[in-house]
Structure formats: C-alpha cells, structure tokens
Amino acid sequence: MNPPRVLHPFAVPSRPTDQFLEIVRGEGCRIWDAEGRSYLDGTASLWYCAAGHGRREIIDGIAAQLAELEAYHTFARFTNPAEERLAELLIDELKPIPDARVLFTCGGSEAIDSAIKLVRAGHKAAGDGGRSVFLSRHYSYHGVMLGGTSAGGLPANRDPFGTLLPDFFQVGRDSLEAMSEAVDYYGPDRIAAIMAEPVIGAGGVFPPHDGYLQGLRELCDSCGALLVFDEVITGFGRLGSWFGSHHYDVTPDVTTFAKAITSGYQPLGGVVVGPRLREWLEADPSYLLAHGNTYGGHPTCCAAGVANIELMRAERLPERAAAAGARLRAGLDGLQGHPGVAEVRGEGLMQAIGLTEGLTAGPFTEALLARGVIGRGLPYANSVAFSPPLIISDEEVDELVAATAAVLDELAG
Ligand SMILES: Cc1ncc(COP(=O)(O)O)c(C=O)c1O
Predict the structure, then answer these.
(1) Domain 316-412 in CATH: superfamily?
(2) What CA–CA distance (Å, rounded) separates 146 from 75?
(3) What tens digit of pLDDT does each residue of 81-97 get?
(4) Which ligand 1 atom is nearest residue 107's CA?
(5) In the CATH hierarchy, which top-level class contains the domain 58-314?
(6) With a threshold of 0.90, does the pTM exceed it?
(7) From the CB of 230, is ligand 1 less than 6 Å away?
(8) CB-CB contact of 263 with 49 (8 Å)
C-alpha cells in the first residue's frame, strides 16, 4: 500500500496509509477513532490539552469571536480586543514574569525563534551587539525552526539538516559547572542568553535538580546574559503552578509559551518579554522591531486563549494538576521494583517511567494503545511519558496506571 498524501511530522515517510490511526472525536480525557474505539488520552495530545477535549466554553468563545471578527493582523498600529484581553490575563494576572509584555506567535517553534531574535535585537539595541552566543542543554527540545533546532540538544532532530546556526552550543543536562565553563570558554561578554526548559520534556522528562535553575539565573546575572525559560510544556498549570518560573521560584528574563494557553483549541504561542529586554527595545522611540508573524495576535486564537484561561482559573486546574500528578506519581512509584522499570521521574502532571534495557519505548506505547491508553514514547531516555489533561479524574489516573502495569507484565513479566 502507498503512503498517504499527508507527509506526517515526526513519522516514517514510507509508512503505508492503512497504518494511520484516524481520530474523529474527543470528550474530556478520551478520544475516539474512526472505528469507534475509545482511548484514554494519557498525553493530552502533545502535552497541550489541559482543559480536556470538547469543552463547550472554549468552543463557544471561539465561535463568538469568529462571528464578530474572524481575523485581522496586528502589525504596526493594529490590535483587537481578544488579543488585548489575553495579554491582560497573561501579563497582569498570571504574571509569568512581573512587569512584562507579550509578543504572540502561532506556536512554540515560532515562539523560540522569536525569542532568539528578540534577545539578539535587545542586546544590539543596548549597544552590546557582540552578544550572539546561546547556551542550552543536551536533550533539550526547543522546536523545529532553524533557531530552535540549533538550540535543541536531541541529535536525531539536528543530524539530517546540515549546518545549523553558528554560536549555539549545548552542555550536559544537569551540570551547572559545565554551563559555567561554557560561559568562560565562549566568553562572558559574548553570551546572549542561556535557554532551558524548566523540566526537560521531549528529551525524557527530567526535572531540574535543586538549585539548578537558580544557578542558571546567577550565571546569567554574573555575565550579563539573559535567562530564557522555554515553558512551552510547563506553562499553564502542568507542574501544579501556572508557570515553571513560579513553581521553582526563579524569574527568567524571557519566557516562551504555546500549547496549553488555548488547550490546543486554536494554535497560539508567544514570548513574554521581561523588564530588562523590554527596556532595551523601548529605549529609542525611533526603533522599529522588524519581526512578527502574519497571524500573531489572531483574534480567534486569542479568544480561545481567553476562554481557556478563564475556564482553567474557574476550575483551579493547576491545583488539580498537582493533586492528580501526586496520585499518578504514587501509582507509578508503586511499579518500582518491577523488572521492566528502571526509574520513575517527573513533576506535577508530567511523569515518566524509564524502562529497563530489555524494553523499548515504541513497542511499549503500542501495547498501551492496544489496551486503549495513550502514552508517549521518548526514545532518548527509553521512557514512556504521561501528561494527561489537567482535569483527569482519580479513576482515570488509576486506569492509566493499571494499563501501564499490565503492559509491564505482558512485556517484562
Ligand atoms: C519545550 C518545547 N519547546 C518548543 C516546542 C515547539 O512547539 P511547537 O510544536 O508548537 O512548534 C515544543 C513542542 O513540543 C516543546 O516541547
């Protein structure tokens, strides 16, 4: 059989048409395929569906905005009420960084590449244009555009694409010493920023060790670089706090976000620009920021963000994520000692089991799927990650753990 017309992302291009799973419906923490089989969405799609599927409040918010003003650009002097309201909610109420502003994009990768450009532009505007070096971490994932691919530390995502951008370097995931050596090696006055996911996601779900993020903050302060948190996964409640910056009590200069800001009901991402960077960009009234996307600040996407955040606040979803995360962790911890389990790691509702050598993540997630549960295989750490919607019930958490236990018995019993 031939491959389908669609060239699927992060997929084998030659995979035949009949091997794809057609998802047709979603409600709460469950989705259904075209054959009517249901699955527990143990990954909130790709980490993003915080509010769960089929939420009327978000759908109605989007429909109302479409009927009023479906789209209009926000370049130069143009703005719209949905964008303004979302910015107010984000900047004044949720406050990922105090006294910040926000640039909206269409997703996480655009947010990362925007952040890279804004950081460089800021240093240049401040008369410090020699700062071009970005330091990041092995096994980090910062999206798929050229900037984010150059910053990212997953070899398979870099190798096929030839020479990446100069002045991007990665160091060992956990080592402040390695980061500090890199600052000295590349030159403290050449470092534009250090970029990090508060909890490494696609690279295996690795929370920071105690003091790591604070150590990055101090390194940046000592060399004059900016600290960028990539909160595309950790933003909007997943760790049990609205942002990783709150959760770990470390304030970055720049935060990138996407995914759960709309729970995925519309594509949206962005860059939160903290006071240091915004002052550099605002200092000269004749300075033009020559950057932005056609759909940045798209009113329908922003209306989805507003409705989603209002729902998440009303239902206290970050607190629920903390409670559900604790239950999930306790369940997975109960599997420690099984011959298939090497390790359990995570934070909040972002948890993973590391598999022992005889098992591989791909077949493991296929076996889970056969039992009606979706998990995410993370091959670098030979791990299976669970990041369900933040609304997940206790019974659904238990179902997820029971399916994991059954697959462990099946494959490594
Ligand atoms: C930490 C992180 N940064 C950036 C991205 C890229 O976001 P997007 O896929 O929306 O472009 C992702 C996507 O999973 C991510 O996990």
Answers:
(1) Aspartate Aminotransferase, domain 1 (3.90.1150.10)
(2) 23
(3) 999 999 999 999 999 99
(4) 10
(5) alpha beta
(6) yes
(7) yes
(8) yes
